[in-house]
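REQUEST ID: PR-0412
SUBMITTED BY: lab tech R.K.
PRIORITY: routine
TASK: structure prediction, single protein chain
INPUT:
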Amino acid sequence: MSHTFLPALLCLLLFSCSSTPDLSEKYKPQGRKVEVIRKGEAYVLLRNGEPYFIKGAAGYEYYDRLSQYGGNSVRVWHTDDAQQVLDSAHAHGLTVTLGLWMAREREGFNYYDKKLVAQQREELREVVLKYKDHPALLMWGIGNELYADGSNVKVWDAVNGIAEMIHEEDPDHPTTTTIMNVPHKVVNLIAKRAPALDILSINSFGAMHNLPQELAKTDWEGPYVISEFGARGYWESYYTWWMAPIEQTSSEKAEFARARYEQSVLADTSRCLGAYVFLWGNKQETTPTWFSLINEKGEETGLVHEMRQLWGDTTHTLNKPPYIAYLTLDNKFAFDQIYLKPEQTFEGAAFTFDPEQDSVEVQWELLPEAEQQDGNADKQVKPKPVEDAFVKQEGTKVWLRTPRRQGAYRLYLYLRDGQNNLTTANIPFFVTNEPLK
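STATUS: complete
OUTPUT:
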């Protein structure tokens, strides 16, 4: 090779190197470090060096609305659609608590098996390496309610091992794990066996009213996040004699959840780093309305309205949803244990009003009670409505002809005000020919 050609070749190589994009820089976190610090007696979550209080929702859709309404973060339970979730959240200025799904004992995982535990940790290491530099990432959620129907304390050793691995691979994002309420023994085990965790995440619904006080009785001394909250859970509700949980109206849910948010999240200024309302979207779990804040048509329930106020949404004029005070069937409330004979007509009635006196559309629906799979109400499909169930409708009254088939049913009421607001209520009843004892 001639010496005269070398300078030209060198210039070509330098040009090629400088013009080739470094793909590793695509998601390099420019000032995206997230950390927990302690200021006096209080814990503070810092993102990019600035205090970051979580105003979040748990779910996989409607991120545009969450951002518009004053929310700033989403929580998801697994990484099946992690790239799409992270990208969508980032596009709307939101952060993500990204769940790393860990197998549970009740699903057949053996936490005594060291090889299996190590394999799970290494599989999650690949996930951490894949997403750790995404600018929307806020923290890693290691497992979800891992102790449910389980007794092996070594699960917390496995959680600690994954937290240590994350700190090794990604020192820029905190780690957390999620429990349900504040079971003292479980929290004490976590404090003892998983010291690598930075934050404790707590799913809490009806029991949220005294959560800070209950946590103070445990060995956990660090900060926490409310990772799910909302309506009273079906497991916390009053039941009928045939074991149908009695659901709050969406009007009651809004008042109920707001009060608990104020009592726990806003009241605990030293340890609580924020909260995620559940569920930002819709799902069938015991009923199609129990946790669904936004239905399949995109209509919003009263709790969305409350969260917009709590998050400080001042950019929109808030139109209040219709209000349901009560719902009866055959002049009885749900607590009255409603047994009806088949193929007979009974009157359902509700007392409702709209705060802005909007014109309200009334819809009734009759559904059989949903069946649980393996005793799990989280794995359900919405039952098909009973056809030709209504003899007549008149305002917020309906005349229901009970089905021939005996069993458990619910009568549902939906109110719409034309402002994208939805209010829901239902009442359970049992169709039978058997005389009551």
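NOTES: The radius of gyration is 26 Å.
REVIEWED BY: pending
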